Amino acid sequence: MHPLFLIKSPNHAFNVMLRGLATTRKKYDFCAELYYKLKSLGLKANNFTYPFLFIACGNVWGFLHGKIDHRLVFKAGLEGDEYVNRSLITMYKRCGEMGFARMVFDEMGERELASWNSMISGYSKTSFAKKAFGLFMEMREKGFEPDEMTLVSVLGACGDLGLGRWVEGFVLEKKVEVNSYVGSALIDMYGKCRDLISARRVFDSMPNKDVVTWNAIITGSLDRFYTL
C-alpha cells in the first residue's frame, strides 16, 4: 500500500501540496506531475484539485495546458461547479484569452457576484472597456449589487470611455463608502480622463488617505503635467 493511503484524507493532502506548488516558478510542471501521480494511485480529483492546476496555468505558456485541464473538468463531471468555473475564468483572463473566459461564463448555470467581478476585471485589464461596462450593466439588470471590486474594475475601464462621472454618481446614489480602494480608483479614472479638478475634489473629500490614494493623485498630476 502506498504510504499516502495511510493518511486519513489523501485527496486533501494532495490538494494542499498542489496549492503550495502552484506558487513556485516552475509551477505547472510540478503541479501536473503531482496531478498525474494522484491519478495513477487511483485517487479522484475533486472541485478543489482543478483550481490549483488552473492557478499554475495562469500565463501565456500555460494556456495550452489550461485547455487540456479544462477538458478534464468535463470528464470529471465538474463543469457545473461555481468554484471550478471561476478558477477557469481567472486562468483564461490571466492568459489574455477573454473569449474562452466568456465562453465559460456564458455556460455557467448560476453565477455569483465573484464570477461577474472576475469577468469585468478581465475585460478592464485587457482594454475591452465597452465590454466591461456592458457586463456591469447586465449584472445590474440581473439584480446583482456591485461591491468594491466591481466598482474598481469598472472605473478602470471608464478611463477609456469617459463614463466615470456616471459611475461616481452611482456610488453616491447607492451611498457606497468612498474608502481608499474606491476613492483611489475614482482619482485614477479622473486622472486618465485629464480631469484633475474632479480628481482633486474626490481626493479632498476623503477623510482617510493612504499611500495608494496619494500615489493616485500624484500620478494623475504628473501625467497631466507631461501632456501639457
Automatic annotation (TrEMBL):
InterPro entries: PPR_At4g14850-like_plant (IPR046960), PPR_rpt (IPR002885), TPR-like_helical_dom_sf (IPR011990)
GO biological process, one term: RNA modification
PPR repeats: 112-146
Keywords assigned by UniProt, alphabetized: Repeat
MF term (GO), any: RNA binding
One Pfam family from the record: PPR
PANTHER family hit by this protein: OS07G0578800 PROTEIN-RELATED, OS12G0156900 PROTEIN
Protein name: Pentacotripeptide-repeat region of PRORP domain-containing protein
Organism encoding this protein: Populus trichocarpa (Western balsam poplar)
